[in-house]
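Figure caption, in words: inputs first, then the predicted bound structure.
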Amino acid sequence: MVEPWESNHEMNETKWHLLVNKGDKHMEQAHICKIIRKVEAAPGVMDFTVQNAALSAAAKPGQFIHVKCSDDVALPLRRPISICDTEGDTLRFLFQIKGKGTAALAKQEGELDILGPLGTGFLVDNERFHNPAVIGGGLGTYPLLMLAKQLENPRVFLGFRTKELVTLEQEFAAEDPQLAICTDDGSYGYKCLATAPLEMALKAGQVDVIYTCGPLPMLKVVKELSERYGVKCQISMEQRMGCGIGACLTCTCETKGEGTWKHKRVCKNGPVFWADDLVL
Ligand SMILES: Cc1cc2nc3c(=O)[nH]c(=O)nc-3n(C[C@H](O)[C@H](O)[C@H](O)COP(=O)(O)OP(=O)(O)OC[C@H]3O[C@@H](n4cnc5c(N)ncnc54)[C@H](O)[C@@H]3O)c2cc1C
Ligand code: FES
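Bound structure (FE2/S2 (inorganic) cluster present):
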């Protein structure tokens, strides 16, 4: 099978859209949302707030939206973006401009066609876990804000490549006064990976559950730390997506299940999984 992102990407994308369009229309709800705020949060990173009461009310931390980026027939596939936060009847999301889809989305004005909220988000259990740690890297920090707001007394560890990419600092600091920001080049905060202060907190016995999202190398280290220190861990996975609603099987990831249960759909069974179920 030809994947949509292989050569001749846009033509394949059109075929893919025809394959999954039926499910898209009938199985999940699309919302027309008014763009009420749009700013560049960091170079190449857009911060959008849209208004739609039904979408905002249904959203849970860790879920994502599937956004129609353009009316251009050459770009029919939606793009998945994590829900960063909700407030009243509004929903906020941040995205990095990577390719044609996100570049077109960044130019949108007026209204957006958004499918969602989609997927299985983070488990917030303030009765069971009293010392949650939230660790994000780069773009993976965006889905963690709404989560941090719903957790009681979270410790938050964020990693970025460099100072100019640091985003949402004030919002996270409001949830954790000890917020640890790390940059790879030391241009802001601590010069280390965000996993370093997380490990110190684990060593000190200050963590009983970890929630994470970010680049794969970081996720692997966080998973390994959770195993070494014996604490539960939830990981938000990212995968190239087609339909976003469980119909096309583009987005599978490997889990420890048996046979056909081994490969799970990131868009439906995830994007959030328990670390001990995942093969990374
Ligand atoms: C559940 C989920 C949540 C996401 N949340 C966010 C978010 O909150 N903010 C954000 O900036 N991005 C997020 N992404 C990634 C985002 O969907 C992609 O960057 C986007 O689809 C790229 O589309 P494009 O047309 O601009 O680029 P394309 O032309 O499709 O791709 C350009 C390049 O971007 C990279 N890319 C594309 N899709 C992905 C992907 N899914 N994962 C990793 N790299 C990719 C590839 O390197 C590719 O070569 C999320 C992805 C998933 C699956
Ligand atoms: S993107 Fe189609 S099944 Fe997940």
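The chain has two domains: 9-118, 132-236.
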